[in-house]
């Protein structure tokens, strides 16, 4: 197939694939791990597109690199003219992915097809920086990058050099020592106020590397620019681990310290945006208080309810987390859970069974009903809340009733019908003098619905 024809095929299928298929296999690592050229062509024939792009700019070629597709498949993709530097995104260039996931043969293959290894992403991270994320010992890539003039002392926007970035990678001891022996700059203190040891504490479970960087540090107990030190650094980015906590203990660190918001490492672990809570068991075996409150009155359970999956919430409750503890804004675990959608039905049922007050309000007047409507909870749960005696017409901190929330942002006309049948007052106005009927007319999800007439 000619280049122009194939690219036209890519473009056409890009328009068709999104609506026709729930998930594009080209945008998964799993597909590429054992994919042959014939497999790729078959998926193209089915209407899937190699040009479909995620919000941050990744396309099929990026996933082929992440999934470690065979060199034959990679060559075929490049021979077809598949672009490896898509427009948009945040500097998501395939050259960077090649450095992270590939070997020397792949690096040279990309160069054969015109790759520019002088690129960098939105953080100023170059291919030599992305090499620090590679899980294998790749001395050949280092030598090749040196041959083409790449600078291993070049810093990213945080002031971290490629050598300094190896501190994050627990499999990179040999690569670190290789570059160290070459005399490259480890860039001790970066723009976040972190040295090699502090960076390693955020993600590196290699005790040998932790020991090396600890000994290299001028002050291993100093805090970074955010006030994080020691155990707080182990949860500052994503998750902690048994290895890092045990290392800190062996050096005499106090694991009970808090940040400037009064949060322990357990609070911070629960507050990050990862759905899981890797390292939770390692913290709990060291006696962390599951009901400790921070300066705003938040327990780890309340913080976890913002981002964590239901299994994490269940684990905290199993450990004795108080199911009714409110923070300084009057938000209880039940109210927080009601915002998480119907995936949290089991958690909500457990909180109610444990004594959560369905008629309680937060400090600004928000009720379980307003929270439940905003969270898209099922009518069966709304009925349970109404039966508990909640004020149907209570306004929350946004001066908005449950009916108004359903009219403004809701997607289910039946929720509005339920609230009206339960006695919600449709004549109430918000601070802009708008009624629920006026809000519903601005809601695209309710366009053409007969429920709008019922709000008049």
Automatic annotation (TrEMBL):
SUPFAM superfamilies: Ankyrin repeat (SSF48403)
Membrane-crossing segments per the record: none
Pfam families assigned to the protein according to its UniProt record, in alphabetical order: Ank_2
Protein name as annotated: Ankyrin repeat domain-containing protein
PANTHER family with a match to the protein in the record: POTE ANKYRIN DOMAIN, POTE ANKYRIN DOMAIN FAMILY MEMBER 3C-RELATED
Record keywords: ANK repeat, Signal
Segment forming the signal sequence: 1-22
Residues in ANK repeats: 90-122, 261-295, 296-328, 329-363, 364-397, 398-431
């Amino acid at each position: 197939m000619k280049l122009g024809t194939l690219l036209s095929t890519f473009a056409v299928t890009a328009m068709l694939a999104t609506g026709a298929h729930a998930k594009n296999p080209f945008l998964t690592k799993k597909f590429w791990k054992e994919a042959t050229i014939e497999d790729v062509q078959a998926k193209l024939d089915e209407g899937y597109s190699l040009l479909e792009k995620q919000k941050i700019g990744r396309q099929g070629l990026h996933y082929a690199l992440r999934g470690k597709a065979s060199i034959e498949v990679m060559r075929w993709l490049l021979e077809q003219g598949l672009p490896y530097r898509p427009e948009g995104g945040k500097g998501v260039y395939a050259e960077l992915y090649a450095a992270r996931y590939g070997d020397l043969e792949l690096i040279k293959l990309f160069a054969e097809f015109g790759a520019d290894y002088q690129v960098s992403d939105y953080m100023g991270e170059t291919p030599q920086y992305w090499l620090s994320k590679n899980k294998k010992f790749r001395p050949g890539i280092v030598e090749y990058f040196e041959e083409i003039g790449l600078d291993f002392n070049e810093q990213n926007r945080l002031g971290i050099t490629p050598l300094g970035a190896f501190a994050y990678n627990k499999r990179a001891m040999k690569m670190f020592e290789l570059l160290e022996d070459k005399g490259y700059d480890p860039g001790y203190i970066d723009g976040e106020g972190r040295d090699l040891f502090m960076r390693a504490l955020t993600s590196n479970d290699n005790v040998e590397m932790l020991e090396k960087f600890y000994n290299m540090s001028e002050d291993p107990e100093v805090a970074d620019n955010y006030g994080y030190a020691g155990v707080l650094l182990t949860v500052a980015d994503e998750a902690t681990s048994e290895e890092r906590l045990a290392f800190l203990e062996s050096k005499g660190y106090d694991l009970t310290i808090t940040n400037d918001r009064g949060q322990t490492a357990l609070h911070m672990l629960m507050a990050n945006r990862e759905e899981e809570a890797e390292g939770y068991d390692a913290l709990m075996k060291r006696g962390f208080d599951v009901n400790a409150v921070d300066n705003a009155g938040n327990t780890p359970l309340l913080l976890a309810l913002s981002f964590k999956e239901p299994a994490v919430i269940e684990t905290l409750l199993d450990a004795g987390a108080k199911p009714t503890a409110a923070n300084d804004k009057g938000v209880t675990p039940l109210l927080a859970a009601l915002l998480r959608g119907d995936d949290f039905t089991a958690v909500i049922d457990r909180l109610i069974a444990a004594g959560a007050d369905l008629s309680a309000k937060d400090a600004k007047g928000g009720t379980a009903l307003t929270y439940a409507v905003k969270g898209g909870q099922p009518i069966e749960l709304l009925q349970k809340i109404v039966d508990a005696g909640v004020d149907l017409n209570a306004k929350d901190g946004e001066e908005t009733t449950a009916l108004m929330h359903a009219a403004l942002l809701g997607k289910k006309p039946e929720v509005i019908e339920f609230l009206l049948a339960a006695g919600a007052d449709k004549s109430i106005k918000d601070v802009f003098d708008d009624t629920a009927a006026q809000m519903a007319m601005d809601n695209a999800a309710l366009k053409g619905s007969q429920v709008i007439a019922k709000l008049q």
